[in-house]
From TrEMBL:
Name of the molecule in the record: TatD family deoxyribonuclease
Pfam families for the chain: TatD_DNase
Record organism: Agromyces fucosus
Alphabetical list of InterPro entries matching this protein: Metal_Hydrolase (IPR032466), TatD-like (IPR001130), TatD/YcfH-like (IPR015991)
Phylogenetic classification of the source organism: Bacteria, Bacillati, Actinomycetota, Actinomycetes, Micrococcales
Domain of life: Bacteria
A GO term from the CC aspect: cytosol
Positions that bind a divalent metal cation 2: 171, 195
Single annotated GO MF: hydrolase activity, acting on ester bonds
Length: 312
């Protein structure tokens, strides 16, 4: 088995952007983590490989990241690269929009939703896989005819997370009420994260009451995102996380350029300013919250290429 870390599995669905990555921001004095990124996606005029991403991130005070899968291929890739790279942990899942397509392909391509879920269940047992995600509901891209498959997939992912004692990363787009009702009906995992939080103050207060985590991405800096800033202001300090969702959602003032973990300091500084918080203390809280959700990046040793080849 070869080292997968330099490769990209795909490019952005819009073909990517023929522009360079932005310059590095001023480093943070207290290190934090990017708890949701997609390093398998190539973007920009000169795409960065995993090592380049993580070296840039380390140089500005980003201690590590959670690499997130969205289908079988990217989940396997995420688990394998995290097994070799001490600055990465992995999350594995089938994106909500994958579920209807997999349901429709059952018996045709040989890989249906149940087969794909079985792969996610197997990957969940690997030591550096620390979350099931991103899973949830997306009513923006999927019509009513595909929602049954989304619900079935979401509930299966919740079950996998609970059986393996892992965190759950939720993708919630135009489906706040249905996501919340599903979590309450089947029982949310102990550590549940609303990835790229997209609600407002009401959902933030509800999540706080339930003990769920809110992860804010670069869109909290957008001019038209006052609802996200209102949510941030009412979120308990011990339930706030930060992410890039790279290569998407590049923060102001860099919109239109590729996003990457090394740009997290822009979002963190903005969030601290919104909250009127001391930057170093805010970073300490973010780091503590992230480790509380995913565990330490140093808990499980990584394997070298020779060990991986011997076990293949």
């Amino acid at each position: 088995m070869s080292d997968p870390s330099p490769a990209h599995l795909r490019t952005r669905s819009d073909g990517g952007r023929a522009v360079e990555y932005p310059p590095a921001p001023e480093p943070l004095r207290v290190a934090v983590y990017d708890n949701h990124t997609h390093l398998e996606i190539a973007d920009g005029a000169l795409p960065l490989d995993v090592h380049e991403h993580l070296e840039r991130a380390a140089s500005v005070g980003i201690a590590g990241a959670v690499q997130v899968g969205t289908d079988v291929a990217t989940s396997i890739w995420s688990a394998e690269v995290a097994a070799r790279e001490p600055r990465l942990l992995a999350a594995v899942a089938l994106h909500p929009n994958e579920a209807p397509e997999l349901e429709a392909s059952a018996g045709v391509s040989g890989t249906g939703l149940d087969d794909a879920l079985a792969v996610i269940d197997e990957l969940a047992a690997r030591p550096r896989v620390r979350a099931i995600g991103e899973t949830g509901l997306d009513f923006f891209r999927t019509g009513e005819d595909g929602r049954g498959a989304q619900f079935r997939s979401f509930e299966a992912h919740i079950d996998i997370a609970k059986r393996h004692g892992l965190a759950l990363q939720i993708h919630d787009r135009d489906a706040h009420d249905e996501v919340v009702s599903t979590l309450r009906r089947v029982g949310a995992p102990e550590r549940t994260v609303f990835h790229c939080f997209s609600g407002g103050e009401e959902l933030a207060r509800l999540a706080a009451d339930e003990g769920w985590y809110l992860s804010f991405a670069g869109n909290v800096t957008f001019k038209n995102a006052e609802n996200l800033r209102e949510a941030l202001r009412v979120a308990p300090s011990d339930r706030i996380l930060v992410e890039t969702d790279a290569p998407y959602l590049t923060p102001v003032p860099l919109r239109g350029r590729p996003n990457a973990p090394y740009l997290v300091p822009h979002t963190v500084r903005f969030m601290a300013e919104v909250l009127g918080a001391d930057l170093d203390e805010f970073c300490e809280q973010l780091a503590a919250n992230t480790v509380a959700v995913y565990g330490s990046w140093q808990d499980e040793p990584v394997i070298g290429p020779a060990e991986a080849d011997a076990g293949a």
